[in-house]
Amino acid sequence: MQILFSMTKWIGVFSLVGLVGGVCLADEVGQQKIGQTAKDSEAENSPEIDQTNAADEEAKIKAAEEAEEAAERAREAAEKAELNKLELEDPFTPRYILEAIEVRGNDKSRGDLIIAQILLKPGDVLDEEKVDLSRIRLLALGYFKDVRMRLEKGSERGRVKLVITVEERNTIIIDDLFFGWSDTNPFWGGLGISDINFLGRGLDLSFAFVASEHQQAFRLGLFWPSVFNSRFQAGIQALVSLGEERALSSKIAECQDASCDPICAGLPASDQNMPYLRAGGVINFGIRLDRIHRLALEFHAEHIDADVGLGEWCDNHPFNGYIRPGQSTFSSMTFRFTRDTRDDYFLPTQGMHLVVSIELASKIFGSDYEFSKYMLKYEHSFPAFLDHAVRLTLVGGLIQDVGERGSPFFSRFYVGDYAFFLINKDSLPRNLELNFSEVVDYGDLLASVTAEYDIPLWSTGKFFYRGYVYAAVNFSFVTKAAFLASSDEWSGRTKRPVSFDIGFKVDTPVGLFTFSLGYVMDLVF
């Protein structure tokens, strides 16, 4: 009962409040209607007041439009003013003007050669990123063990001097060591040596030779990567090769035709040799587009004298189509584009090296051989776990011949130049374009992929500057060239294109040496 009484009480209260509120709301609405009626009556009786209000409204609208136009003109003036000036992005960040550049520690290298690699010049605003890139450029030259850069106070406030301290390394280096043995050449050996900073002017003077009982080759070259510290480059190379391609009798196919010429039928009875002479050279001109890009043009000319021997016309002749018998001339023009962002000339840990080239041999250049050759090489290094590095290398090539003897054999692709160890491979890398192996793996289409993992052992030695161990895997495929006489000459590499290598690299004052277990295994097996 008490609960029911309470509810009844509150219901009564709410009803009373609602009634009062309704009366008030009705009174307010009534007052608004009375006021509006009065206003309408007043408006009908006062036309002059309407005209005055309309004029006021029009004036207000015009004033608003004028204000908007003035604001638009102000915005345009402000934008134009912004275009007419350049201010610091952060006015509180200090800016220093480079007053001078000074080189220290250069006993052999000319100072102007070093300064030419710096991406800043006196008068420029100091840029730390350009300073770091300049240091990488100097290290990439291969002339210095270390390069340190620091700033010193200038002659007045806000000016600084860039001091470059270099630690020079020996620039007379051994580029190549040649040695090996095979069934066709009991032993061969040779050496490639160069001074990559000849006379301290950045000239690259090189000499190389390789010799065996039957074959010898020599190279002498001079390359100037920055002529008088300019963007232009030039080079020249002389070459002489006394070669001898040798085909073992077991590799020569039997004559398949019943009416075979007696000379052709007798070819497999003994080993066949093809001695030849090559003498000529290469002239190079180029331009550095910027710090990482180069364009080059090469002209290559040679005199060739080859003794192909009897039966050169035979289908089973091992050297059928290799080269023109007797004397001939080979000349070509090569266009080359290079992009190089590697952080180190000898053992890069980051950056890429791209080389794209097109070689054209034609009668227009006085050549007896006509073909086009396209090459691409891409190498990229990546930093890996700790201070390890991964290097990926892609190589591709294509030769298109014009006529039966479009390209001489020495300009073709050789699978041994790219592949590592493989059991029963029987093909070794060519040395100065001389083939010392017992098989012929020349081709007109090349595809090669190499992955290498480098693990540093030390990096602060006095004589042995740095040491690395590496492991590598390679996939190389070279098509059989159309001029090869028989499938027996093919080594079988294309059937098992994957090869492996493990080795050791050491950076010394006389160059970078690589001990390749894969090469030794190729010699033994």
Could you walk me through the main structural features you see in this protein, from its secondary elements to its overall organization?
- The radius of gyration is 41 Å and the shape is elongated.
- A hairpin with a 7-residue loop joins β17 and β18 (466-478).
- With 525 residues, it is α+β, with helices and mostly antiparallel strands.
- Helices cover 21% and strands 41% of the residues.
- The chain starts with a helix and ends with a helix.
- Strands 4-5-6-7-8-9-10-11-12-13-14-17-18-19-20 form a 15-stranded antiparallel β-sheet.
- The protein contains six helices and 20 strands.
Percent in helix: 10-25%
Q: Give Rg in angstroms.
A: 41 Å
Q: What pattern of helices and strands is seen along the backbone?
A: HHEHHEEEEEEEHEEEEEEEEEEEEH
In DSSP terms, counting alpha (H) and pi (I) runs of 4 or more, how many helices? Answer: 6
Largest sheet: 15 strands, antiparallel
Question: Helix/strand/pairing class, anyone?
Answer: alpha+beta
Tell me how many strands there are.
20
- Shape, principal axes of CA atoms: elongated
Within the largest sheet, what's the order of strands?
A: 4-5-6-7-8-9-10-11-12-13-14-17-18-19-20
Distance from first to last alpha carbon = 114 Å
The whole-number mean of residue pLDDT values reads 81
What labels describe this entry?
disordered N terminus; 20 strands; 525 residues; 3-stranded mixed beta sheet; 15-stranded antiparallel beta sheet; single chain
Q: What is the strand and helix layout of this fold?
A:
Elements: H1 2-44, H2 47-83, E1 97-104, H3 111-115, H4 128-140, E2 144-153, E3 159-168, E4 172-180, E5 188-198, E6 203-212, E7 216-224, E8 232-247, H5 262-265, E9 272-288, E10 293-306, E11 326-340, E12 351-361, E13 371-383, E14 389-401, E15 413-414, E16 442-443, E17 445-458, E18 466-478, E19 498-508, E20 511-516, H6 517-524
